[in-house]
Amino acid sequence: MYKATPNPPEPETDPKKLQEASDRALDYYLNPKQAKSESKSSPGQLFTVVDGIDTESLLANLSENLASADAMVSDLAFDLKGSRRHVAFDIQQLIELSRLLENQMLDSINPQH
């Protein structure tokens, strides 16, 4: 039986729109966006270093931290006696060795003539 209804309209097919839609679909499934840096941190992590800080700034802050630790251990060592005092001075020696390494790194990055 023949019906007297109009044919459905022809879909408008713009090749550019079709290409954009297919690219979006493929990118969504094949190239997912990387998760933010928050996923790198562990659940118990309280502190983090901001990405993109230059090496010289990192080393300068390391130097300040080592100087503070050195001062605290030095003050503590003079209040201790016996083997505990030796342990405190050993920690201070490790801090001083770390400062020497840090200073060498700073000098290699920014040599001063």
UniProtKB/TrEMBL annotation:
Q: Where is this region: Disordered?
A: 1-21
Biased composition, Pro residues: where in the chain? Answer: 1-10
Extract the Pfam families matched here.
Answer: DUF6124
The protein's name in its UniProt record: Uncharacterized protein
What is the protein's species of origin?
Pseudomonas zanjanensis
Q: What is the lineage of its organism?
A: Bacteria, Pseudomonadati, Pseudomonadota, Gammaproteobacteria, Pseudomonadales
